Fold this sequence. Notes:
GO terms for molecular function: ATP binding; hydrolase activity; transferase activity. Keywords: ATP-binding, Hydrolase, Nucleotide-binding, Transferase. This is Carboxyltransferase domain-containing protein. The longest helix has 12 residues, at about 55-65. By secondary structure, this protein is mostly beta strands. It has three domains: about 75-200, Cyclophilin-like (Cyclophilin), CATH 2.40.100.10; about 230-415, no CATH class; about 435-545, Beta Barrel (Cyclophilin). The protein has seven helices and 35 strands. A seven-stranded mixed beta barrel has the order 27-34-31-32-29-28-35. A six-stranded antiparallel β-sheet has the order 22-21-24-19-16-26, with no helix packed on it. It has a five-stranded antiparallel β-sheet with strand order 17-18-25-20-23. Strand 21 and strand 22 (about 345) form a beta hairpin.
Amino acid sequence: MRFLRASDTALLVEVEDPMEVTRLGAAWSEVPGVTELIPGAQTVLVRFDPSRFSDAQLVDALSTARTGAHSSVAGPEVSIPVRYDGEDLDEVADLLSVSVDTLIERHLNAQWRVAFCGFAPGFGYATCTDPLFDVPRRSSPRTRVPAGAVGLAGPFTSVYPRDSPGGWQLIGHTDAVMWDIDRDPPALVAPGTVITFEQQRPVAVVTSTPNTSGRTGELFDGLEDDPVASEVGGPASGSGPEVTVRETWRPDPVLASLRVIHPGIRALIQDGGRPGHAAMGVSGAGAADRTALSQANRAVGNLPTAAVLECTGAVHMEYRGLPGVAAVAGAQGTGELVSSDGTVRPILQGVPFAIDDGDELSLSHPTHGLRYVIAVRGGLLARPALGSVSSDTLAGLGPGPLEAGDCVVVGDPRHAPAVVEPLGITRDLPRSGETVDVMITLGPRDDWFTPEAVAALTAQEWLVGTRSDRVGLRLEGTVPLDRRIEGELPSEGTVTGAIQVPPDGQPVLFLPDHPLTGGYPVIGAVVAEHLDLVGQLPPGARIRFRLRPEENFGG
């Protein structure tokens, strides 16, 4: 094994035998202080609590646990029916110098085992011992691959769980539902699952119906002509607002709600996220600025990770229902609350304010930072996905982006656990055009880059591009980062804050909705204490990376 630093809270462990990935995952899940394991093609990303032990101590613990790993791990077995009618079937047969019939026969006769999941929830990378299957990805990825498409890439086969872009060679299609949030477990396959393919047979292993609404885990719309919505009244006493909610989720009673008048650039429901589901290909997601999440919730007396609104740009909301308490944290700008009688009150950062039926909350475009966090006592309610109501914009989990007319239900304030705590927050957040220092660690793949590229990472300033989002910041530098090692990197786990470098040499700094695994080398990663800062960087801001002193823990 080789141990590589992936961040100040994660190590990447290389192994020679891909089958050992599954065995080590089973052994290391019991190591105290290990918070999550993300299997890759030939690696295991180990996330850990740095307050429990150092990198060197973790290496010792993992090495010891490895000796107790079983020689094999028996996983569940799944049969997947396939119609071999993929667009690339003939081309793949030519690439492998076999007939189409031979390709199909060997795909059917092979026993496939899922080594890891990534790219999207329920997307399992399965390998087999048949040496035939080593297929290059398409030179030009498709912008849309349909759900159920069966593909090949490198030594792997997989089934796309949802419509998405993709560069795999498509050989067939299945009706099997690979991911269903209403199923337990939602993923049909997981690391260790043994897959056998059957030709042109009906699905027998899956009975639930996939969600095809386009807004997975959707909460509610305020549109009265919505054919799948139903009117839900307020409290039994007759007080409180009428709120239109999706029939898949009915709070009773509805005490209060926030109606979106203008959502700004993007308004999302976020909470502490959904860590612990990496084996199914699900990232942690959650608030981009967890400091702001905690501060806003503390100001209104909620638990630190209660659900809030995360808003980018200028927003306008109307409060409806019983009197409540709200607070704003995160990005800095001007805010005001206009009551139904026309009274105007200013909104201050971190200072709780009373809010009543008919009040309208307006926040200007931020002058500093990027994302506001709006908390209301009682928290925001939505239909949870894997224990969280966070909106994961890449995976399509949780409520979709809010639109004008949407109503967000507020929880019962009597269930809030703490007293209101006026914080009076002062944070030094950047504005567009300003430069901030961000501390990073090198690795795990800094050795894939030339010495000049490693030096350029910290020697120049990086502009935050306009195509940045919750998946990652697109960075632009005068000197691109040239690679020393060419070719594809087998897919491996990545962390929030990872600085991944595509072929053009312009990095992408991963934010909470990033993919769990990736095939581009990661040159470094932002340390945990600066992740909230990068989550607030607006387009036009500049980053100056600074190296954290490294300790030599060996590999």
